[in-house]
Specification:
Blueprint lengths: L5 H11 L6 H9 L7 H8 L14 H13 L7
């Protein structure tokens, strides 16, 4: 079984939810989960895996989980 890297999941969620221009909302979503992030971290995490970019940083799984939880709490995504 092959898994999608956290950066790629984060990148696709941002695009799917049309949040790419609203970094302040993304920061607020993380903050609602007790996480502090910067705009530069968001940019680094949105860089897809395998892209040669000097600012690339792997997104910790814990941070992706917090982001998804925040989206769920804000009802931007639903579970079944």
């Amino acid at each position: 079984m092959q898994f999608m890297p956290t950066n790629d999941v984060f990148h696709h969620l941002i695009l799917f939810l049309r949040l790419q221009k609203d970094k302040d909302l993304i920061i607020e979503l993380f903050k609602s989960q007790g996480k502090t992030v910067s705009k530069s971290q968001i940019k680094a995490w949105r860089t897809k895996t395998g892209t040669k970019h000097p600012g690339y940083r792997e997104m910790p799984r814990e941070m992706l989980d917090a982001f998804i939880s925040a989206l769920h709490e804000r009802e931007l995504i639903e579970d079944e």
